[in-house]
Write a structure and sequence with these properties.
Chain lengths: ~260, ~350
């Protein structure tokens, strides 16, 4: 079984359903629009901001503020790409055609990751450039230290959110179940753990909190034990674990 | 050639397929017959390497499916016509399957033409009727021009013209020397399509023989005997007398008795000696459908509640003593039909 055949087939599958275009465009639009809105509000409120906040102000990170909502669409994209195979029953046709389940699984993840990364890259640059334009005098430039890393990192962060969702969806199979686990995980568990001081240290190691470190340029006065790439590495480990879990279950389970 | 040896599949403590051994030979249509829930689909999934057997094994052309090189070029299957992404159009659905196994894209147009879906190739499958879905599933099975074909209930939802088309397609595929394995719960359909039958119920093999042998072995004649419906005493007396005379007596659903093993004049004599009057004594031949019902009786998992004990108890059925059973009820696919000769429909396949 030539891997190229499976890749080509997965590419046909992913671009022949409208959910791909919908979820990815929503991710882009929501992230950029919310980022611009929050950047604009920040500029308007600048006068009332305490001096301490002005000194540690991170214009790059502020322009990515829309990511927290935009990643929702990325999660939906990742979940749908994998779980519609199961919810439609297409998985039997696919696995009958590709009995080597590892090849099938890797191809599907790889083919879905490419458009997710491309859209994430556009989203990250658009969020940054438009956000900075709105911030006016308080803006950062791409050439500033750490900024380019943060923007590219933002794209990688969004992509990994989709990849993590694919792994979880492969384990859980049902789209409703996968979304029902992932949404509370990112929107309830992570913020709650991060808000309570006792669990803050644990919350830091959750994929979204660790991964979003790479989008910060100004990090004065925090005691996070890992750097930007360390944080992204932790997120990548979460993704690897989810993908491995998905693979082991796919290999062992009856289709 | 498909060969199953001691094939067994258990889910927890439920045994779906139980020590099943059979062969499906090339050049003929083999019907895979059994009531709903008897393990047909599980067996088919095991043949395709989708489910792993708990015990035993099954091979296609001598190898387990998952170790066949480029399996889709050798084996084509229709498992579930609804197993398509409704948001994808028919052409690209088939294209993605073709690409998986390196089948050239022009085959997609060929099979769409063959199943008569060319005109709707660009439409999303969401809007397809059940019959169109079946045709799409058959198209997918034929993509790789395979030597071995598996169809799970291919005539479901097809109109009479579609049923005839599938029947002829199966026969022509077999005539080309291919191995064709078709499952169905309709004996009447299999009687017209298949050359060979593999009959299972509750996961166990009941028969593995040619259709001709099946008819010869199972469509034995019987007599219908009816006594006055004044009370159960007459019926019980006649049943006892006939049994003593060496007959097998089974109560029919409508209160009549089905007697095998004695010629009609002898039944009349026995009734006379037992001082039982007869309202009916008529010769019958069991239809193929009925033979199949008898064979699988008591082995059906999901049955309508009209008479859960049919054929298993001698007591009369209340409210069913008024002659021919006119209405087996809509939800009663497995009730015997009391008509006489030839294959009869217990369930309208349309």
């Amino acid at each position: 079984m030539a891997v190229a055949q499976v890749l080509r087939s997965e590419w046909t599958k992913i671009r022949s359903v409208s959910s791909t275009v919908w979820t990815l465009s929503v991710a882009l639009v929501v992230t950029v629009a919310l980022g611009v809105l929050i950047s604009w509000l920040t500029r308007r409120e600048w006068g009332e901001m305490p001096a301490r906040d002005r000194l540690t102000f991170d214009p790059t990170f502020i322009s990515f503020a829309g990511m927290s909502l935009g990643q929702l669409a990325m999660i939906v994209f990742g979940v749908l790409v994998v779980s519609t195979e199961y919810s439609t029953g297409m998985i039997r046709t696919s696995l009958a055609a590709v009995p080597q389940r590892g090849v099938f699984y890797a191809s599907k993840i790889a083919v879905a990751t490419v458009p997710a990364f491309v859209v994430s890259l556009v989203t990250a640059f658009a969020s940054f450039l438009l956000g900075q334009a709105v911030l006016g005098p308080h803006r950062a430039a791409l050439g500033d230290e750490g900024v380019l890393r943060a923007v590219v990192g933002g794209a990688l962060y969004m992509t990994l959110i989709a990849v993590f969702s694919m792994g979880v969806a492969a384990m859980l199979r049902s789209p409703m179940l996968a979304l029902g686990v992932l949404m509370p995980f990112f929107f309830l568990l992570s913020p709650i753990l991060g808000a309570v001081s006792a669990t803050k240290k644990v919350g830091r190691y959750l994929p979204d909190q660790a991964g979003s470190r790479i989008m910060q340029v100004v990090t004065v006065g925090d005691d996070v034990p890992y750097g930007p790439w360390g944080g992204l590495g932790i997120m990548a480990l979460w993704c690897a674990a989810a993908l491995a879990g998905g693979y082991l279950l796919l290999k062992r389970r009856d289709a | 050639m498909i060969e199953a040896v001691g094939l067994t599949k258990r889910y927890g403590d439920k045994t779906a397929v139980d020590d099943l051994s059979f062969q499906v030979r090339p050049g003929m249509v083999t019907g895979f017959l059994g009531p709903n829930g008897s393990g047909k689909s599980t067996t088919m999934r095991m043949i395709l390497g989708l489910d792993t057997p708990t015990a035993g094994h099954v091979t296609v052309n001598g190898s387990p499916y998952r170790s066949l090189p480029n399996a889709p070029r050798h084996v084509g299957a229709l498992l579930d016509a609804k197993a398509v992404h409704g948001g994808r159009d028919a052409y690209r659905h088939l294209l993605s399957i073709a690409q998986l196994s390196g089948i050239p894209a022009h085959r997609v147009d060929d099979v769409l033409e063959l199943v008569g879906l060319s005109e709707v190739a660009g439409r999303r499958t969401k809007g397809f009727s059940l019959g169109m879905g079946q045709r799409l599933g058959i198209a997918a099975a034929l993509l790789g021009d395979p030597q071995v074909l598996l169809f799970d209930e291919p005539v479901n939802g097809l109109d009479p013209e579609g049923i005839l088309w599938v029947r002829n397609l199966m026969k022509s595929l077999a005539a080309e020397g291919r191995t064709v394995f078709v499952s169905s719960h309709l004996m009447s359909e299999m009687a017209l399509t298949a050359d060979h039958l593999v009959v299972i119920a509750r996961g166990r093999l009941l028969a593995d023989m040619s259709v001709r042998e099946f008819i010869a072995a199972n469509s034995a004649g019987f007599a219908r005997v009816r006594v006055p419906d004044t009370g159960p005493q007459q019926r019980e007396a006649l049943t006892a007398a006939l049994t003593r005379a060496g007959a097998q007596v089974l109560p029919e659903q409508d209160g009549a008795l089905r007697v095998t093993g004695l010629p009609l004049p002898r039944i009349s004599d026995v009734a006379h000696e037992a001082e039982v009057r007869l309202w009916e004594l008529s010769p019958h031949h069991a239809s193929l459908e009925e033979a199949y019902m008898r064979l699988t009786q008591g082995m059906v998992d999901y049955r309508s509640s009209a008479d859960p004990q049919i054929g298993m108890r001698p007591a009369p059925v209340p409210g069913r003593s008024d002659g021919w059973d006119p209405d087996p009820g809509p939800g009663a696919p497995f009730q015997p039909v009391h008509a006489a000769d030839g294959p009869t429909f217990s369930k309208d396949p349309r």
